[in-house]
Amino acid sequence: MVSDIVLQRDLPDSVRQSAGALVGCVAGAVLKDDYLEAVRDAGFKDVEIMEEKAFPIDAVSCDADGRSVADSMGLSPGEVQEAADSVLSMSVRAYKPKEG
Predict the structure, then answer these.
(1) Domain residue ranges in the chain
(2) Helix, strand, coil % (nearest 5) of the chain?
(3) For 2-48, what is each residue's pLDDT tens digit?
(4) How many Å apart are CA 31 and CA 10, to the nearest integer?
(5) Helices marked H in 17-91 — which ranges?
(6) Among 21, 58, 69, 92, which is most exposed with the fewest C-beta within 10 angstroms?
(7) Are 93 and 48 in contact (CB under 8 A)?
(8) Would you state the pLDDT for residue 16?
(9) Regarding the domain with residue range 2-95, which homologous superfamily does it belong to in the CATH classification?
(10) Which of 5-14, 72-81, 90-99 has the highest mean pLDDT?
């Protein structure tokens, strides 16, 4: 099983280009369907989503570092909420058959 950050929809350019969002594993995240397709393309079978968790918006709004990153991107509270709404933590289980 593996857990990763995925997106339900594309992030605004200001978030995708932010070093702070990249460090937080958000800017480099891919769309959920693209992620699952990549797992299958890598040869994994029976790909199953075990859990999805919404991004904790409090991590940005109630944390000094999170607020600093949002402020440096010039995001309004609504834009922060919109970006956070598209971010998921997803756990996936799959297996890769032995070759041969």
Answers:
(1) 2-95
(2) 40, 25, 30
(3) 888 888 888 776 666 665 554 455 667 889 999 999 999 999 999 99
(4) 7
(5) 19-23, 32-41, 58-61, 64-72, 77-85
(6) 58
(7) yes
(8) 64
(9) Vaccinia Virus protein VP39 (3.40.50.150)
(10) 90-99
